[in-house]
Amino acid sequence: MVGTPLGEYFIKVSDRLPEEAERVLRALVDQGSMNKEELSLTAKVKRAVLDHVIMQLYALGLVEVSTEGKSKICSLTRLGDEFLNLLDAKAS
User: Fold this and answer.
1) Which of 42-45's residues contact partners 24+ apart within 8 Å by CB, and which partners?
2) What are phi and psi of 8, to 5 degrees?
3) Residue 44 CB-density burial (10 A; 0-12 exposed, 13-18 middle, 19+ buried)
4) Cα dihedral: 65, 43, 82, 74 (round 10)
5) DSSP class of residue 69?
6) Cα 48 from Cα 51, distance rounded (Å)
7) Which residues on neighbouring strands pair with residue 73, listed in sequence order?
8) What does the alpha-carbon distance between residue 21 and residue 24 come to, in Å, rounded to a whole number?
9) Which of 1, 16, 21, 77 is the most core-located residue (most Cβ within 10 A)?
10) Angle, nearest 10°, between helix axes 78-91 and 19-31?
11) Which of 3, 16, 2, 8 shows the shortest CA–CA distance to 57?
C-alpha cells in the first residue's frame, strides 16, 4: 500500500492529523473497541480533543462509531489497521 496512490494519500493525511490521532488508533489496536470515556483515558487524550479527533478519523474511514445505550463505542476499521501499518512502515 505504501507505493500506491492510496498509500501516498494516507502518508500525506498522516502529516495533517493531530498527534493525538495516532494515540487513539493505537489504543484501539491494543485494547479493542471502547467507549469515548475509556478511549480518552487509555489514549491520554482530553475528551474535548477526542471528539474532534474521532470525527476526523471517522470521516477518513479509519474508525467506526456505534451506539450502545447512551454510549458511543469506537472501533478500528480494517482501513484504520492498514493505516497504522503504513505509519509503521513509514517510520522504519
Assistant:
1) 45/20
2) -65, -40
3) exposed
4) -10
5) T
6) 6
7) 35, 66
8) 5
9) 21
10) 120
11) 16
The cell 474511514 sits on which residue? 61
Asked whether the CA dihedral 11, 15, 16, 19 is positive or negative, the reply is positive
The H-or-E segment that residue 35 falls in is strand 34-35
pTM, full prediction: 0.89
Query: How far is Cα 26 from Cα 34, in angstroms, rounded to an integer?
Result: 12
Q: pLDDT tens digits, residue range 19-66?
A: 999 999 999 999 999 999 999 999 999 999 999 999 999 999 999 999
* CB contact at 8 A, 45 and 53: yes
